Structure formats: structure tokens, C-alpha cells
Amino acid sequence: MSNRVFVALDTPDIERARTIATKVRHHVGGIKLGLEFFMAHGRHGVHEMHELGLPIFLDLKLHDIPNTVGKAIQALRGLEPAILTVHAAGGRAMMEDAKAAAPTGTKVVAVTMLTSLDGADLTSIGLNADPHDQVVRLTELARAAGVDGIVCSGAEVAAAHKLWPKGFFVVPGVRPADGAIGDQKRVVTPRAAIDAGASIIVVGRPITQASDPDQAARAIGATL
I need a surface site. Which of 48, 174, 196, 202 has the fewest CB within 10 A? Predict the structure, then answer.
């Protein structure tokens, strides 16, 4: 993948999503459509965004019993996203069913730990307080399940890459050195994420809320 920047269009406003994607289309490698967009526009909205000619990362973070996740992915047939997310915490059988149900050309990647969480959050839900250990554990499980890769923060991607040299690593929560962190807790710069082993990075607000989204995308790409 020549351009490893995916822009996160986390908005229910399809016109805004289309406008931003059109502005940055020559300086990003693809677009990420999440729950906000999908709940507002569903399959039709994804088809509309496909018309822009950019790979689509459909970030639904599916997490349910194996049979339900498998059937949900089968119900997405015809959309053919380049990347689709499930939660690694759903377990090995769920991830296996997700991969089996996905179209041949779709990479299924498992979310290990949301970048909005930190050690205190893990403790509050009864898990080990070390984010690194949690990500490593779920990386090993995802690899064993046969999915294509994982989603993790830039703080853990080097360790995950070492465990899984041929894995596909998605790093969200990326911020330019002078960018605002917002609601993220474990962030790195785009260059640091790529150097640590990220296959692609996901950038949202630093591009979508910039006065000139295209220039912002170009500036980030220039650091890689």
C-alpha cells in the first residue's frame, strides 16, 4: 500500500464525508467509515463513498457470539471493504467465523484495546492494568484465529509486530507532533507509528477539522 494514511470520516453527515474525501483523495490511501456513518447511511452510504475510488476501511468493531458475527459479515456482502474490524475480546471462535465469512479481498483486523483507554480503565473492568500485556495477549489470540492483523495504539505496535512479523497493523489515535490529543490517551506521531511497524495509520480530526484538509493530509504524508 503506497499511501499508508487512512482518513477517519467519523460523521453521520454524508455530504461532509464526501466533501472531505474528495478534497484529500490524492493524498490519502483510503477512508475509514465508522459506526456514526454506518448507522446513519448503512450499505447505501458505503456504496456512495465507494464511488470516489478509494479503499474503504469499514470500522464496525463487531463483537457478539460467533454465529451472529459471521452472519452479520455475510450480510455485508456486496460492499467488499478493504478492511473490516471485529473485537479481539470476542474470542478465537468469533474471530475465526469472522474471517471465514469475509470476502476474499477483505482484511479482517481485530481491535485489541481502544486508544481511549488506559491502565485505570482496564482495572475498572477487571483486567490486568498493563495495556501492553493486554495487547500482546490479544495479538497472540488474533494470530492464532487466522485473521489478518490487529488494531492497536502506537505504544504497542512494535511489540505486536515482533510477535507477528507478517501481520497487518492498524494504528489509530495518531496525532502530529503539534496536534491536540482530544479524547485519546495513548497517542504517537505518524512517523513514530510507521517506524514502529504500523501497516497503516488512521488520522481523523487533525485532517477533517483542519482549515485545509488536503494540506493537512499532505503535511502528514510528508513526514512518513
Answer: 48
